[in-house]
Design brief:
By secondary structure, the protein is α+β, with helices and mostly antiparallel strands. It is built from four helices and seven strands; from the N terminus they run βααββββββαα. The protein has a seven-stranded antiparallel beta sheet, with helices on one face.
Length: about 150
């Protein structure tokens, strides 16, 4: 499994930051590698809610179906899957000074014969980290300025 993670601080309160980030349909606003994230389940976010994502990786667009598998006051974890990969995305939000500390973790497990290439693909997955973290920080800070 390939693990990509990191943390950023924002000016937005933890409650508002988590409210925005836990609505996973907002992902396309902060993650440049995920131009499409559609909520498939109506209503407030809850365990079992599903999303359709289209992510860009190494120049190719891939569809994944995500499901919320854990949800607490400041933690959400989703499982995404398609024929070639299983992904787990987690977002945790804590307090930091006047704002929040957001920790984002993405884990990727390659399926099938391509699994042997997993160690070679790690740098490509790691290249997704900083743009996503910077997107979270910039988006949440812009919301704090409103």
């Amino acid at each position: 499994m390939i693990k990509v993670d990191g943390s950023i601080e924002t000016k937005l309160s933890p409650e508002k930051a988590f409210a925005f980030l836990s609505e996973f349909e907002n992902t396309s606003e902060w993650d440049p590698s995920t131009p499409v994230m559609d909520k498939l389940t109506p209503g407030p976010v809850a365990v079992g809610h599903r999303y359709h994502a289209e992510s860009e990786f190494r120049g190719k667009r891939q569809s994944l179906e995500y499901e919320v598998i854990e949800l607490t006051d400041r933690h959400i974890k989703l499982r995404g899957e398609n024929k070639s990969i299983t992904a787990f995305d987690s977002i945790d939000v804590g307090s930091s000074g006047q704002g929040s500390l957001v920790t984002y973790t993405a884990e990727f497990d390659i399926k099938g014969p391509a699994k042997i290439l997993q160690p070679l693909l790690r740098p490509a997955f790691m290249s997704l980290r900083d743009p996503a973290l910077n997107g979270i920080r910039d988006t949440l800070n812009s919301l704090a300025g409103r």
